[in-house]
């Protein structure tokens, strides 16, 4: 799970102030995967 979190943080820096829709959808996908894996 750590690589996904790192890539999410990198995406946050990359998309900062540019495309929040992309960032939000990516965050949603990552957290959904995390919930499915953890559950």
C-alpha end-to-end distance: 14 Å
**Poorly predicted segments:** none
- Report the sheet-strand fraction: under 5%
Counted beta strands: 0
**How are helices and strands ordered from N to C?**
HH
Radius of gyration, in Å, reads 10 Å
Write up what this structure looks like:
The protein has 39 residues and is mainly alpha-helical. It is built from two helices and no strands. The mean pLDDT is 75.
Describe, in short, the structure shown:
By secondary structure, the chain is an all-alpha fold. The protein has helices at 2-14, 20-38.
Considering the chains and any ligands shown, give keywords for the structure.
39 residues
Topology:
Elements: H1 2-14, H2 20-38
């Amino acid at each position: 799970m750590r690589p996904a979190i790192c890539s999410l943080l990198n995406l946050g820096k990359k998309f900062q102030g540019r495309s929040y829709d992309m960032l939000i959808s990516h965050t949603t996908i990552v957290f959904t995967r995390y919930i499915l894996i953890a559950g």
